[in-house]
Amino acid sequence: MTQTLPIVPADPAEVPAESPRPTRRRGLQHRSRVANTIRIIVGCIIALAFLIPILWMVSGALKSTAEVTASPPQLLPSSLHLGNFADAINYIDFWTYLRNSVIVTIFSVAGTLFACIPAAYAFGVLRWRGRDATFGVVLFSMMLPFPAVMVPLYLIFRKLGMIGSLAPLIGPPFVGQFLTPAFSSALAIFLLRQFLSQLPYELVEAAKVDGAGPLRLLVQIMLPMAKPVLVTVTIMTALSSWTALIGPLIFLNNESLSTLSLGLQQYQSQHFTDYNLLLAASTLFVLPVLVLFIATQRYFTAGVTQGAVK
Question: Measured between alpha carbons, how far is 308 from 195 in angstroms, rounded to an integer?
Fold first, then answer.
């Protein structure tokens, strides 16, 4: 026969206490969710602060003159005045200014890439005596503001007989002299060099073993891997060239060669009281850059984070 042993209750003192780790883990998870929620809220507030001027500009472009100057201000128009855009275009030679801006922007981007990619490749990949010292001089040039070189550039182009043409705006980028208050060739070289210097040097050695020369190494190996930072430099160059005002204002004395930024400034001086038309013209001016950034923001973010930090 099977004997049934009596069940003896365990001594409470001998029962192991519940581990505090699950409680601690739940506390960390709760704090992490709270921190993420705070970051999201702060990010939304910052994004809204940047969006409000754009939304106000678009809203004012669709209002009548009375609604724009109404007090208190109205957030949304009572009816959409799409004719404001046509009126803004007709008040200035919009299509001529647009053509000039496109020409200057395309040549500025092409010239900056043409001059800065080989320079960044030499500073970041090739090894030669005096490389770091020369790169320090390039970084020092980033500290020079545009007004510091404005007068010398004007005197040089006047001696060359280029004042009153697009040459002072489209020529310098091809020799590494793209310079605006927002962006410069030195900054482009810095971003490209930082990205290229992060790539494993074993790639260079392996390519040399396979018989690849410096040009083939740059074109077939380095540039395909540097797509994010190339897009970043392209966007920043295009944006700064598209919105540049000081350069066109100094070098262009022919209205038929004015860019959109200069034409918009002239429009503001001529039609200062027509706020709705001014906002409509500003919307047309901002729209191409906004579309470009939205379409390429993924590459832009990757290029900045990978190219600026080593």
Answer: 7
Paired residues of 184 in beta bridges:
179
Query: Model pTM?
Result: 0.77
Cβ-based neighbour number of residue 173 at 10 Å: 25
Encode pLDDT of 127-183 as tens digits.
888 888 888 888 888 787 777 788 888 888 899 888 888 888 888 888 767 666 667
Neighbours of 241 (CB within 10 A): 27
**Which CATH architecture group holds 83-308?**
Orthogonal Bundle (1.10)
Q: What are the boundaries of each domain within the chain?
A: 83-308
CB 216 within 8 A of CB 125: no
Instruction: Count the residues in the chain.
Output: 310
3-state helix, strand, coil in the chain (%, to 5): 75, 0, 25
Q: Are 236 and 303 in contact (CB under 8 A)?
A: no
Q: How far apart are CA 244 and CA 263, in angstroms?
A: 12
